[in-house]
Every structure is written in C-alpha cells, then in structure tokens.
Amino acid sequence: MTLDVAVLVVAKAPVPGFAKTRLAREVGDVRAADLAAASLLDTLDAVIGARVAQQVVAMTGDLGRAVRGPDITAALDRFTVMPQRGDGFAARLVNAHADTFAAFGLPVLQIGMDTPQVTAGLLAESAALLTERAGRCVLGLAEDGGWWILGVPDAVSAEAIRPVPTSSRDTGRLTREALLAAGAEVLSLPTLRDVDYATDVAPVAALCPASSRFRREYLLTAGG
C-alpha cells in the first residue's frame, strides 16, 4: 500500500568545505564530504523503500563538485528535486515544507541527511502515524537535543517552527513547544543519533546494515 505522504529530504550537496562543516573541523573537508555523500545515499535508499506517494529532495549546493556526484544524481532520478530558498536554515526548512505541500497537497514528512541508520520501515511507520489523525504532527528528537524527523499535515503547521533556533540543544524541545502552541497534536517518534561530530560516526555506523554505504565508508578508514 502506498501512503499518501510526501517524504522530504533537506540536503546539502556533499562538496568538500561546504557540507558537514562541524565534522570537517575534526576530520577534514574531504573526509567529511565522503561521509556526507554516503549518508545521503543511504537516506535516499530508505526513502525509496518506504512506499510513499511522493519523494522530494530540497537541495542546496553544486552536485557537479560533490563527492559521488554522479551516484547522487542517478539516485535523484527517483525524486522531485527542488532548490532550497530563504535566508537561514529555519527559513529554508519552512519554505521546503511549503513548496512540497504546494506541489502535492499531501502531509509532509521531513528528514535530513544525517541519520543513515534510518530504515524504510521506520519511515513508513512514521508516515502512517502522521496520517492516522487529521491535524497531527510527528516529531523525532535527536540525541543531541535537536530533531531528525518532522511530519506536518500542511504548510501552515510547518510555519510554526520558523522562529525556532536551529543547531542548539533546545531545538527539539522548542520545536515541540512551537507546534503545541499552534494547536497541533504532536506525537513522539523514536530518538536517533545524528552525525554532526567525529564521535558520532562509529556509533551510527554500528547501527547501519552491512550494505550501508556509510558503514562501509567508516570501515574503510577504521581498518575494519
């Protein structure tokens, strides 16, 4: 059964020096871009397997300069690709939700490219919960205090998070509070660890299947 949800991936082209800048300060620009590319490809695979009505990527950056650019471009043939727009990350998130809803008129389930351990099954379960009740939002927190997944029924609901500061230890809590203040029901999804720093790489890779590109990329330099 196909779920009437648009899954939206908000992504940066894995160009060295452009993607995963916090991780790059610890492991170098090229290594960070290698890991980002592997993580993005794993994420796209999970979305493709989730059996949802629409698969969307809001992209920023030049794929022509990206690590694994041809592989990513080929994977994106299965997606509707939209440019990110807006000043600041919060604005780009909200606008990506608005653009996706305007295009398809479906509830939007949005993830980033930092959780390569996510599975098609988890995305499908999250999409089903989002559509189970009218007006419901779903939110999955990240271990660092942010969030890794957000589902909203429409663009108006997404607009509530525009003032929320991003990349802070309070982002997840404040996002939930903003949605509740707007009158939404907010259902909690599982908490995942995302990849922002070098200390995140090994634990997340350990949660990925043997077929995972991210896991293989980690083992390539870890000697495994």
Automatic annotation (TrEMBL):
InterPro entries: Nucleotide-diphossugar_trans, Trfase_1_rSAM/seldom-assoc. Pfam families: DUF2064. It comes from the Bacteria. This is Glycosyltransferase involved in cell wall biogenesis. The lineage of its organism: Bacteria, Bacillati, Actinomycetota, Actinomycetes, Mycobacteriales.
